[in-house]
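Technical annex B. To support the medicinal chemistry partners, we prepared a structural model of the target in complex with LLZGTKA7, based solely on the information shown next.
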Amino acid sequence: AQPGAVQPVPGPMRDLVWGKLNFLHTTDTHGWHAGHLQESQYSADWGDYVSFAEHMRKRADDNGVDLLLVDTGDRVEGNGLYDASSPKGKYYYDIFRQQHIDIICTGNHELYQAATADGEHLRTVPNFKDNYIASNLDYIDPRTGERMPMAQRYRKFQTKHQKLDIVAFGFLFDFTGNANNTVVQPVRQTIKETWFQHAIREKTDLFVVIGHVGVRMQEFQDIFRAIRDQNPATPILFFGGHVHIRDATAYDSRSFALASGRYLETIGWMSVDGDLKSTEAPQAKTALRFNRRYIDNNLLGMYHHTGLDSKTFPTEHGRNVSAMIAKARDALDLDYAFGCSPKTYWMTRTPYPGEDSIYSWLEEEVLPDIAVNESRKDKPRLVIANTGAIRFDIFKGAFTRDTTYIVSPFLSVLAYIPDVPYAMAKKVIRLLNGAGQIMGPELMDNRFMAIPEQLAIHESIIHHQVPESGAHSDAQQKPLADGQDRIPLTEGYTTRDDIGSDGDDTIHAGINFYMVPNCIQAEVAFPSSGDPPETVDLVFLDFITPWVLMALRLNGGDYHRDDVQLYVEGTFTELMAGWIEKNWPRRC
Ligand SMILES: O=c1ccn([C@@H]2O[C@H](COP(=O)(O)O)[C@@H](O)[C@H]2O)c(=O)[nH]1
């Protein structure tokens, strides 16, 4: 863990179940490779994961079984370690590559900015040469304009001990927000291509499909159907991401799909046991046993799963990686405090609107103050921000350079359309917050403006009874230390997936999740009494421009991209950090 990271707290644990073939899975790490310095449950860093994987590989070797590591993208954007450097990712590439990953693919965050996609192609793809797969993604060389696959389309290999033949794919969901130096081909088109049709006819023991795709999204269902139609009995394993939740499901009795959360809070575990070699049971459908575990990313858990302790656990390589991270954090001055947050502001742990809601804070305090264009400052305006622009809670205490990017990593700016009839402008927020999609040249799902979790979670989850102790009747529960049969539960994930509610490796007290709207809105410089203004400036984060234009059009406003102008200089992130510097005490 990083210097200054909080110590993990023991909790009742569930063990890992090993099989002939085992996997560790990370996804949507978004630059959190230093771990969560302020949260004990997730305070291990990428170096600790390197040590963990080394011990787990040794155990696999000792027992003659196989262990593979998977990463399903969105490694960037969302933490100072990636975002605070110039250019972005100056330290990240060398840190990330220290983990040996057997199958790796791209997420949408590697593609929003052309420079990020360049970095992916020039650094991460070669760093993971034979293991990087891009089944439906092309890269366009900026010098020649040549379009080429981002990486190999699929990978065929054999495992070390069990000698299992594997055909692996690496997909991205049907993402359309990429910069123009990449091309994402829709999955339903890709699976018709000759190379894919050939690959699913390869003789193999298993198919492994990794993807930056939610495990319940149509893209995975389509891939599953295409493979299964050709291979009635072959096991198919899916590793997904994007939605930022812990999740597992099975598409049929010989398939299994795992999603492993977000922000290096979770290391996913999947194991498969049974007759895996196709020659062991040709054509026979002998039962397979799948297991999954969501490992909280902290040292106590890693000690528990490896049977080691603080002295025996860190490997030389792991220690070196932790040191690399500490050096990078220092060089980036990530602990520099812009101000001291007077309290904790939550994204979804408290209701919106509410006094502890980060969105109410933005709406009531920040947006009115930062959305000011000197030459139009007296003009009434509606200021709209999408809730997905905010990526994490703000904890009471120091608000640092790191926190800035953790909360708001994007390069979005405040844009506006001047002098929109108020009667039309005031209807926009209702359309943006409507369920479903606004019809446009392409279907624009309104949920893409909100936080990714709400792609999977459709109603608030409120834990009315928070258990006080770990003593309950779960057969798999194991006390962490001898004689400790009543360990107080820490707050954390209490995952319920299609397999059951025993997936989390640590038994936690539940955390509430309150749904948030797609967008929030502040009314600024409105007359305090009398008639509403005839016209207003409609100010919004430029990320939601397509939705705003479509909402205006649906209300009879013939507005186009040319009508959208920059409202204030500076990114939203810079404006928010500036607000904090001005309004919160410097020191805690
Ligand atoms: O510039 C941006 C880019 C993204 N967003 C928000 O993020 C989600 C996508 O997040 P994932 O981590 O890929 O799931 C997107 O739907 C937006 O809500 C943004 O606000 N600005």
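Notes passed to the chemistry partners:
Residues 28, 74, 108-109, 112, 242, 386, 388-389, 410, 412, 448-450, 452, 543 surround LLZGTKA7 (CB under 6 Å).
Confidence is low (pLDDT under 50) at residues 466-484.
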